[in-house]
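Why do we bother with holo predictions? Because pocket geometry can differ from the apo form. Keep that in mind while you read this record for beta-D-fucopyranose.
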Amino acid sequence: MQSALGAGAAAAVPAFLSGCSVSSRASGNAASAGATGAKQFSSTLDFPKNFLWGTATAAYQIEGAWQDGGKGESIWDRFAHTPGKIKHGDTGDIACDSYHRWREDIALMRAMNLNSYRFSISWPRIQPSGSGPPNSQGIDYYSRLIDALLEARIRPLVTLYHWDLPQALEDAGGWPNRDTAARFADYADLVARSLGDRVSDWMLFNEPSAFTDLGYLEGVHAPGRKGLLDFLRASHTVNLAQGVGFRALKAARPSARLGTAFSMSSCEPATNSAEDKLAAERAHAITNLWFLEPALRGRYPEAFTFLPETAMGIKSSDLEKMRAPLDFVGINLYYRTIASAPTALDRFTHAQEWLFPVRMAGGQQGAKTDIGWEVWPQALYDMVMRITRDYNRPEIQITESGCAYNDPPDASGAVHDVSRIAYHRDYLAALAHAIADGADVRGYQAWSLMDNFEWAEGFSQRFGLAYVDFKSQKRTIKDSGKWYAKVAAENRVGPGLEVRVGPGL
Ligand code: FCB
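The structure, written out:
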């Protein structure tokens, strides 16, 4: 969840749904605790049969080999090669070198007992200049990876677009250019034809609200543009691309199951005032629904004072075009958002806040991870329940959640990342309660399989369940990875899964 503007559900959601699909050995349901209203989640919980345990990665963050195998330049290659854009001048040129070391990476997943792997396809590996016939070396790479995953009984969960647009398409206008939606549909069709005989579960986009905002409005991610109009137009093109990409993929592979990984953040009003509650709804709309509502309902969210239709380039037939009845909703969630109503003299740090208008900030009560994000497990519970309630209990996949903690290896090479274990344990407990309260959640993909290139933060933030020594490329499963292996094997979180530390373990 990369955003200066995380936002989401307003109030705590009651357990209103029946039909629990989880067998919970919880010693009672999530109960309200303390003046903060935060819930305490009991910690022994079983997950439903066939629950999928996985990790998530993205092509640019792990593959490296930026010029190998006929790959074209992406906007992230160009951006990272531009001095001053990435911390310490890091680039994804080599990253985890997964393009060459994917067998080792599958071995890590096997050692962690995982049965799902979310990864992304690099568009410029498939279409080096963003259009035209597929590059066979690119297809072959993913084909081998998928075959090996299936052989290891790991479900491939494939993202078509995790932010690495072919640079040639950016040169033609990028996402603000409507034509990019048609290019995306062609790419979706190509990939589905080449790999769709073995892949059934796909995601069209990763975090559309993050890449349109950070890439086209704030300029801190590729392609580094800073324009309100660019952001508005990019948003609309991506919504169109979701619709046309959905239909292209379904036409090529009718049995494919499609979703998008939306960045989400539960929104709480800063106070109980009516103004702040309304502001929290606007925050929820811009952060969580800006790309979900068009897909599921063929319209933009209703919470705004007005919609800048002309600036966005919306045409009358577009609403129907945006509709994409997704088979599942992917949720990436890391933290909550506190929303308040702006006052007349407020200075906005961000154009979205001014446009919609709402003030948004991260919570301050929970502990912070090394990247500064608040740890708040209830955000996952609230978000999953809000989507469950508002969208008629859709199938949900947690497509990302995780934490940056930069614990180094000790003298023996082991990484005792106890904070990461606590993070996943508590978020999973919250998730199990959402399932017990009626949400249809089918899997959890921890971000990330291994430490990798964290966008503008370069290699300074480690999110992995496996440690990567970027000089030697050696991978070491951290204590959190060993713990996650037990969670996956036993299909539960709870006592008895502690990781023993000591020589040889
Ligand atoms: C998400 C991104 C993912 C990773 C995590 C930490 O927003 O989808 O690529 O950077 O944040």
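The first strand starts at residue 31 and ends at 32.
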